[in-house]
Amino acid sequence: MAISFLAQAGERLDHFLQARMNGYSRARIQAWIKDGLVLVNGAAAKPSTILRGGEQIEVTPADPPPLKAEPEDAPIEILYEDASLIAVNKPAGLVVHAGAGAHSGTLVNRLVHHFQSLSHVGGELRPGIVHRLDRGTSGVMLVARTDAAHRALAAQFSGRTTEKTYLALVEGRVNADSGRITKPIARDPAHRTRMTARLDHGRDALTEYRVLRRFAKFTYLEVRIGTGRTHQIRAHLASVRHPVAGDKLYGAQAAERIFLHAWRIRFDSPGTGERVTVEAPLPEELERWLGQISE
Length: 295
Known about the structure:
Layout: E1 3-6, H1 13-20, H2 26-34, E2 38-40, E3 43-44, E4 56-59, E5 77-81, E6 85-90, H3 107-114, E7 138-144, H4 147-158, E8 163-171, E9 178-181, E10 186-187, E11 195-196, E12 207-214, E13 218-225, H5 232-239, E14 260-268, E15 275-279, H6 284-292
Helix pairs in contact: 1-2
């Protein structure tokens, strides 16, 4: 059943509703807005919409997301597997796990369909998930089969013994053949959906890059990260005025996707004890992108 409100001027839509719908978090309300369950004068709106006053707002509350990830029959590309883990190739555009506005159609939904047992360290909504990639980033991800493997892999990530290498096309010509960025990363106070490396505080972060090829208006980089901060590569490269191509959030020209691909990861398998290297080939759409830009 829909709930109706008469808007007051000067407030954001999500703030207005949060103040009047006790018991519901702003993240939950934002998810309803994004799912089209909130109408302003009969039309969909954005959470950030500023109300002018007098609008008719109708809210159709949705049931909360499931307390556990439900299986969904959709393909997964497996790059490597042993008794302790699976390495998969995540396509761009696929969300890793459930969150605000994304309760199905995630990588996790696919994983629980294809594999009978995954680790539960991350909870029922994130089985097997030791680390993640942004929605727009493609490439290799590790998934733990057991709790023991999950803890062992997490220790390698936190201890920085894994080697994570990405391929990125960035705007502009990078002059140095290689470089190192160590600026701390924090939530951007002006734009809460992105991170920033332009402040003098935040979490420590390390990004190293090497030029693979230069074009007239772009540079193709191999990027290694020593830490795993949210949007780390995107924020660090934007901070040196070379945003990842297609990454509108960080100041680049918009494109169908961002040119950032998790190409290779090296780690010690908790199951075999061996040092393992897994690579995910560059997706066809990124290969075509490289082929279409001029030297």
